[in-house]
Amino acid sequence: MSKPGRPAGPAADTEQIVLTAALDLLLTEGGAALTPQRLHAVTGVARTTIYRHWPTPREFLAALIAVAPHPAARPSGDPIADLHTEVDLLCDRLRDKPVAAFLRALVTASATDPECVPLRQRYVLDLLAPIRRSLGEIGVIADDDVAEAAMTIVSPLLVDALLLDRSADRNRAHRAVDDVLTRRAGLTR
Fold it and tell me: 89 burial class (0-12, 13-18, 19+ CB within 10 angstroms)?
């Protein structure tokens, strides 16, 4: 038997309305727009509902990370080709406004709210996961070197997207993959 009273979370349609509006505000106005007052004005959802479930920008960012899609490439059977495919997908994701804008919002939020740092780290690690997985599947880089190898490949892409506000350089990313495979694994293509 269920207890009377308010449900633990927002109704699914309310959550979708608010989070869709939150993402739109994030992309058009930046992370500072993620306030309950602003979301109420945009969605018409009761301020009390918004305050109850997302009282700060951090909660909006966490909720958006939780529902962020993580498209996975289909393995081709060639782990090196799969790694290059994952790098292409990451370049595409960083080029597309939602991922780059979301990363910038996480960086900005982390600068003013230390509790946002784990969110930023989680999101970046989610972006790195397919690269790490692909490097691990190649099987010639030691497990404890996979994380470092992935960072070697991805770091310049993040610098492009976050600091230089330009598209991730796909050719440079592929050169980084080839360099990692040559230096760490002795593989060449």
Answer: middle
Average pLDDT over residues 7-18: 75
Domain covering 79-185, topology: Tetracycline Repressor; domain 2 (1.10.357)
Distance CA 188, CA 152 (A): 17
pLDDT, one tens digit per residue, over 29-60 is 877 788 889 999 999 999 999 989 988 888 88
DSSP state, residue 69: -
CB 138 within 8 A of CB 79: yes
Q: State how far the Cα of 126 lies from the Cα of 35, in Å rounded to an integer.
A: 25
Both tokens of residue 72? Answer: 């996975």
Residue 56 has which token pair?
């700060």
Q: What is the DSSP string of 121-170?
A: HHHHHHHHHHHHHHHHHH--S-HHHHHHHHHHHHHHHHIIIIIS-S---H
CATH number for the domain whose boundaries are 12-67: 1.10.10
d(CA 14, CA 6): 14
DSSP 8-state secondary structure symbol assigned to residue 3: P
- Structural domain spans, the chain: 12-67, 79-185
Q: Which amino acid is at 68?
A: A
